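step: validate -> pass
step: tokenize input -> pass
step: predict -> running
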Amino acid sequence: MRYKINSAVAYTRKMKTKVFFKWFFYSLSLVILYSIMSCGIFELWQPYFIISLAIAVSMREQEFASSVFGIICGFMLDISIGTLFGFYAVCLMPCCFLTSLFSRNLIKVNFLNHIIFTAAATLISFSMYYLFNYAIWNTEGREIIISKILVPSFFATVITAIPIYLLVRLISRKLGLEENIDLNEAMEEIVEKREEKEKVK
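step: predict -> pass
step: emit ->
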């Protein structure tokens, strides 16, 4: 089995336009979800929409772009919930990279895998948050943090991953590149077309 990481791709002007608008709508979705999270309307059952969005995008994009988007999502998450700036960025970046790597080489991009990876990323992020903010310092009442905040938020995040998956799938299908052309393949096609034209002449 051959593994690919960020293979070179030749983009036409139309492809570049589609890529631009695709990432524009990804970014717009991030801003909207950030705004909803910042309102605090869910109280203790606060879903972490941004984690679901980061994973959904990573399942359909290349490793480098997914890692950068994961970092940005992490920063936005830090600002939204008031944690140490960069904490969730450090947690989400490797999760997004691995999600993209597995999706491109080992697993299928579907609803079930999105739920699994979202649950895994959320569990890792929450575990790191609990470890560095409560467990290490032996904070009193830390069991309440798990039962009253982290567990409800975990299930809320997994449940709300459903519409986010559908949203990202819609954007990807409308604006994604169905077939990425390797640079070598593109050059071969150009040479073949030139040879055909010369034969006609």
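step: describe -> The chain has one domain: 13-200.
step: cleanup -> pass
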